[in-house]
Amino acid sequence: MDVSGNGNNTSSPEQPWSLQRLSENLGAYIERLGTVWVEAEITQWGGSGGHIYGRMKDVDDDVTVDITVWRSQRDRIPEGIGQGDRVLARVKPSWYLKGGKLSMNVLEMRHAGIGQLLEQIEKLRRTLQKEGLFDLDRKKPLPFLPRLIGLVTGKDSDAEKDVLTNARLRWPDVTFEVVHSAVQGDRAVPELIAALDTVESVEGVDVIIIARGGGDFQHLLPFSDEALLRRVAALTIPVVSAIGHEADRPLLDDISDLRASTPTDAAKRVVPDVVEEKRLVTDLRRRLRHRIDGIIEGEWDRLQLFRGRPVLQSPETTVDAHAEDLLRLIQRGVDITQVLIERGASEVERLRASVRALSPQGVLDRGYAIARTATGAVVTNVDEVNVGDEVSVVIARGTLHTSVNRTDKRA
After folding, report:
1. Alpha-carbon span 399 to 382, nearest angstrom
2. What's the burial of 230, exposed, middle or buried (CB within 10 Å: 0-12/13-18/19+)?
């Protein structure tokens, strides 16, 4: 039979088909099958050159097929999908002409069953994280000793007993405002939100504990509900998540202000141990007393050291020593001043003698005279005056006024 539909159905030992023709006809037939959604388990998953190659296995029977996710389709594959996941996939059969091999091109893929729920939770986690609701800087600190603790938990649950018992063992006077709520099933989310509203309205609540004693993944789904998470994020009171499940942590652990591994751990993290605190206070008092005693002893030693110094034992000794130094400096100043005065007087006499020696008066005192014309000019040459001119002659003790009777030039 010619599956290609070209009307040529002849095939015999005398007229056999080529493998090329057979492969082409199979490819053309498979191409017309279109796309189909299948549920399967991924048994192999690996990337190369931007593409993904792997295998899928039927969830019930021993049937496997090869799968290929081309690079252009990778953005349709959720993050986190890998080997061992149960998935829903929209596939298109693809026939490899030269190798005669059938594989499935994956066009879309999503988690199936629990995997699909995990995918939804992971998507919500990324959304809340992008909004900053998981940031450390928005975490509210817990009070050291809460006056009133709000507890939201299941009625008569082990979680309630664990929190109350361990908290009162640590601090007998601690008080609780307990509000019961469903902690699994369809009623859990609205009842948990209503319980938080009730606790928030109670005056004096310093911290809220949301407690549950573990459970499987399905039971913990309410604690990853977006409405509950946003209600917790809007609270002004610090919230402690005490769900008690390590394997599948709900998103409440990330959005709360503190995550406790179990309800018992929550009691220990919220309520201080009175015995331990008393021991700590006693130890601090002892250390403080020892510190104060050390300071007093140190200051006493310093005081004794100061009192033992000579300046404090005989203060007059220091005054006398400085007085003697002052007298020596005064005497030295007097001596130096006297010497300077004497040297100055001698210098004045010397300068006075020099001035006298160079003064015209000194020349006059030795018998010389100075002749001046009527205009006051000093006569140094007989040619500067004529016979009959009035001249004045300055001598050591006065001035003579006369006239020139005769001039004689020095030979």
Report:
1. 19
2. middle
Locate 268 and state its tokens: 């220990």
CA distances to 18, 97, 140, 167 from 100, in Å:
13, 5, 64, 70
Contact call for residues 54 and 42 (beta carbons, < 8 A):
yes
Based on the fold, state whether residues 156 and 50 are members of the same structural domain: no
| Calpha distance 134→129 (Å, rounded) | 5
Note whether 260 and 185 are same-domain residues. Answer: yes
Q: Using one digit for the tens of pLDDT, what is the confidence trace for 193-235? A: 999 999 999 999 999 999 998 776 667 888 999 999 999 999 9
Q: What percent of the chain has pLDDT over 70?
A: 93
Give how many domains the chain has, as a whole number.
Answer: 4
Q: Last residue of some domain: 112, 143, 167? A: 112
Same domain, 1 and 75: no
Contact 281, 298 (CB under 8 A): no
Q: How far apart are CA 20 and CA 359, in angstroms?
A: 147
Q: Whole-model pTM above 0.85?
A: no
> ∠ CA 366-370-375 to the nearest 5 degrees?
165
Statement to judge: residues 18 and 82 lie in one domain: no
User: Coil, strand, or helix at residue 145?
Assistant: coil
Name residues of the chain where pLDDT drops below 70: 1-9, 113-116, 216-218, 245-248, 311-313, 410-411
